[in-house]
Amino acid sequence: MSAARAGASDGAPQASVDEQHPWLGLASFTEETRGFFHGREEEVAELGRRVQRKLLTILFGQSGLGKTSILRAGIVPRLRPEGYCPVYVRIDYSPESPAPAEQIKRAIFEATRASGSWTQAGVAAEGESLWEFLHHRDDILKDANGKTVIPLLIFDQFEEIFTIAQADDAGRARAARFIEDLADLVENRPPRELEARIESDDSVTERFDFGRADYRILIALREDYLAHLEGLKGAMPSITQNRMRLARMTGQQALAAVMKPGGRLVSEEVAEAIVRFIAGGSELRNAEVEPSLLSLICRELNNARIAQGRAEISADLLAGSHDTILAEFYERALADQPPAARKVIEDQLLTESGFRESLAEERLVKAFAAAGAAPDALATLVNRRLLRIEERLDVRRVELTHDVLCGVVKASRELRLEREAKEEAERQLAAQKAREEATHKALVRARQIAAGAATLAVVAIVGAIFGWVNMQRAREAEAAALETRKLAEGARGEAEKLVVFLLEDFQLELEPIGRLDIVASLSKRALDYYAGLPPALRTPATERNRALAQVRYAISLRNLGKLDEAEKAAGAAVATLDELRGKGDASEATLIGLAMGRSAKGRIMSQQGRFKESAEESAKALALIEPLASAAGSSTASRRAMGDIAVSHGFNLGRDSDTKGAVEILEKSRAALRSIDGLKLADLSSAALFVEATAWQMDGLATLGRSGEARRNGEEARAIADGILEKQPGHMLALRARGLLMGNLGDLLAAELRFPLRFPFTRRPRGTTRASSRWTRATPSPGTTLPPT
User: Fold this and answer.
1) Which helix (H) or strand (E) holds 321?
2) What percentage of the chain's residues is helix, strand, coil (to nearest 5)?
3) Measured CA angle at 398 (ends 394, 401), to 5 deg
4) pTM of the model
5) Of 616, 573, 614, 615, the residue nearest 593 (C-alpha)
6) At how many degrees (to 10) do helices 339-348 and 361-370 cross?
7) Residues paired with residue 21 on neighbouring β-strands, in sequence order
8) Concatenated DSSP letters of 367-394
9) How far apart (Å, rounded) are the C-alpha atoms in residues 77 and 4?
10) Between β-strands 395-400 and 243-246, what pairing exists: parallel, antiparallel or unpaired?
11) Quick check: helix, strand or coil at residue 459?
């Protein structure tokens, strides 16, 4: 493979460990420190067997049980001599980092470069999927002796995809793409994009070996996120097949973890006392011990031994409780640091809900400097094992050493916030008292001044009366001017609303006869009017009306095939309407406009081949409009919009193979459109849309084996389409929808081998074309006025 496999290896600093310091505290063991890692031999052996048997292995357990140490100091050195090349991966979900797939490929390149070389140089392509990356034909990883080496991808802290990665829309999108890539790799199936390329170019298959499975994947995550992992089994069924649960250490395992690395530093009697202490007083045979807490307490006891100049750890050093030792460890680590440094740690390295968060080293150093900490504060806290630095893709990131510290740090933060709130309240109370004293002094002085000024009051009264008369006259003139301005602004507002209504009516009247250019021209003129308004005259209502006109303009441009301009107009409209809703605009017009704007964006993306984004936008549009249209007494406009948007989203679901979901959504569209006038043809555009919704639904019903229902719905819609064309023969929406419908009815009859009856359905009205009954071949997207080509 080529240098496109650029990446970065994990660069976590190694904790200092030797015979006098054999316990790492909260730091994880690594391949380099594996000589001091004891007590988990059985789990490492079992996990190694599972990895060798299956392509995917899941390791899960509660926080603090040493999953990272088992991976780094257990599995990695165990499997490396057996022909595996471990690739330790911890995804960086920060916005500035590369896509997860690119991070993984770079990590593979770095790890495999030290283990051997790939037999085919230059075959990897930038931007290709993980599946393609590891399935190039005859591209095998070989060691120096020519022996095949199997890459083992180890994903540690996998739960971060359900926490840190979900912080914003961009993070969620990156996480979803990563899951899709990983699922293809785990299930060993070619990605959809590759299958599409193969459909258009068979020679692509020569580049890949579709039967390869010479790689392994090991995922480790916290047990409390196992339910989140279950949510992925639709795309990744293998996650349920090869799992291993990591439990707490038994008493004997914990004793080995103390005695074997400790050597002559601790007697067996004291070691047993340490294990019982951590297990809450349980006897050794019944004890259950968290390894991270055991290692931290052993390290703290050893530090106390060294400080007192003792040769061994004695029982009298063991006092307090688990939480006390953790809290003392935290307080001791920060004892000589300024309070602002504690605030940086508690606010920036811990999420609001209490999970670890990582921060780029450069940003943390600046934050510490601003807090008044010494230049070496970060190095000091790393040496004290409160913080650790991990290198991800050449970026050094800082985080708390272990999850067991999260509770202590969160408790400290809550106490600090409570103290700060109390201090702020006291400060405000003192300020209030100072203001009251100042007011009292001012009042006394005012009384003194008032006594002296009393003699001037008589003269002032005469002047005041004269001033009051003039002021009243000025106020009356100002009120008259203000009333005139209000009337003018009200008239302008009503005129702007009328423009929006007229644009909607023009679209309903002109779209069926194909005069979309007129609708686009009228919308553009309205937008030019809004653009020319002075800023002082732009009210929230004006901004809403401008955005609604932009939605109509975008719909017209899309139907005219001007997709780039349409997307720009739709995006601007959605941004404006989203902002208005965020500022409290709960009007129906704004909500309908926002939903239609998102639907327009989805349809534009569909015509551009951006199917995933199209489905996301149509889903957002449906989520906005459905509660409004489904409410009792909902308006005709909301139900018409619901019908339109549901047709688009149903089409997207069908195209993406969610046939059942498509049928359900399209039925909602039909119900909304039916409710407008009972399909009595008073609203021809809604009736034509009903026919189109039925045509797309028939495809889904037929696929689900519900042909009878499909035919009944089709016959009903056919009668409606005929009625529309009888009233308006050139109604292009109805012509196109009828063409889709008749093709589906013909296909149903052909499937029943009733060819004579099929013949009338295959004769299409003038102006229509034969539309495929397969979702994947339907272009353009639903709602396009012109017939598909």
Assistant:
1) none
2) 65, 5, 25
3) 125
4) 0.47
5) 573
6) 150
7) 18
8) HHHHTT--TTHHHHHHHTTSEEEEEETT
9) 28
10) unpaired
11) helix
Residue type, 273: A
Measured in residues, the chain has a length of: 789
Which residues, given as ranges, of the chain have pLDDT below 50? 1-14, 321, 453, 457-458, 460-464, 484, 487-488, 491-492, 498, 501, 754-781, 783-789
Q: Round to whole Å and give the CA distance between 133 and 141.
A: 12
Beta strand 288-289 with 249-250 is: antiparallel
Sign of CA dihedral 127, 130, 131, 134: positive
* Contact by Cβ (8 Å): 40, 253: yes
- Nearest CA to 131 out of 55, 50, 237 is that of 55
Q: Please give the span between the terminal C-alpha atoms of the chain, in angstroms, as a whole number.
A: 43
Q: How many CB atoms lie within 10 A of CB 346?
A: 19
Distance from C-alpha of 430 to C-alpha of 732, rounded to nearest angstrom: 75
Positive or negative, the CA dihedral 715, 717, 720, 724 is negative
* Angstrom distance (rounded) from CA 36 to CA 29: 8
Contacts for 160 with CB less than 8 Å, ≥ 6 apart: 90, 91, 93
Q: Which of 582, 601, 506 is nearest to 543 (CA)?
A: 582
Token pair recorded at residue 456: 């001037």
Tokens 């995933």 — which residue? 612
User: What is the reported pLDDT for 667?
Assistant: 94
CA distance 549 to 526: 7
Instruction: Return d(Cα 324, Cα 317) in angstroms, integer.
Output: 14
